[in-house]
Amino acid sequence: MKQKKKEKPKTEDSQEAPKKEMEELRQTLDSLQKEKDELFSKLQRVSADYANFQKRVPKQIADTICYEKEKIIKTLLPALDNFEHTLQNADSAENADVFVKGIRIIYDQMLDILKSHGVEQIKAPGEKFDPALHEAMMQKTEPEEEDNIVLEEFQKGYKLNGRVIRPSKVVVNKLTEDREQRTEDGTEVE
């Protein structure tokens, strides 16, 4: 006789396993959904913050530039006042020396103001010509001076925090070929 295979009776454990798995999947799905919503919310806030930043920065830059201009102008006003006083007293000045002395004081005051803002004059006369600092306007030949030395300065040059903002306009010494050719002991070649 054939025996029938006995079927295993379905127990509660075998039915609850898929339910538990389904419940775990739902919880995972819910937690992932919640995490996605939080990240999306953060992204929206960051996006809004960035848009506000883009609107705010140009105004801050403009305000800063305006403030710095005002600060520079305020430092120049005392020198302007001194010019005005000097010009008012020019008629009553006993001689030109007093007037020139007043102008010299104002000139020194202006240089001090520029120095306080990081501006310095470029030294040119007697220096070796440097195209980064000097702009050659003319060449002269002065045999008693070295070649490529600045002889005169037409217009002063200035640096702002070490960067050239206007080169010095200068006259440069350029010796002829004969003068440049020397022997080792320093005598000229004829």
Describe, in plain words, how this protein is organized in 3D:
The chain is an alpha+beta fold and 190 residues long. The protein has 2 domains: 22-117, GrpE nucleotide exchange factor, coiled-coil domain (Hemagglutinin Ectodomain, Chain B, Alpha-Beta Complex), CATH 3.90.20.20; 120-182, Head domain of nucleotide exchange factor GrpE (Nucleotide Exchange Factor Grpe, Chain A, domain 2), CATH 2.30.22.10. Helix content is 54%, strand content 16%. It is built from 3 helices and 6 strands. Strands 1-4-5 form a 3-stranded antiparallel β-sheet. α1 packs antiparallel against α2. It is elongated and about 115 Å long. The model has no long low-confidence stretch (mean pLDDT 82).
Q: Which descriptors would you attach to this protein?
A:
190 residues; alpha+beta; Hemagglutinin Ectodomain, Chain B; Nucleotide Exchange Factor Grpe, Chain A, domain 2; three-stranded antiparallel sheet; three-stranded mixed sheet; 3 helices
Query: Can you identify the CATH class of the largest domain?
Result: Alpha Beta
Structure class: alpha+beta
Q: How helix-rich are the residues, as a percent range?
A: 40-55%
Order of helices and strands: HHEEEEEEH
CATH-derived topology of the largest domain: Hemagglutinin Ectodomain, Chain B
Biggest sheet strand order reads: 1-4-5
**Low-pLDDT segments:** none
Question: What's the overall average pLDDT, rounded?
Answer: 82
Main pleated-sheet profile: 3 strands, antiparallel
Tell me the overall shape: elongated
The proportion of strand residues reads: 15-25%
CATH architecture name of the largest domain: Alpha-Beta Complex
**By CATH's scheme, which homologous superfamily of the largest domain applies?**
GrpE nucleotide exchange factor, coiled-coil domain
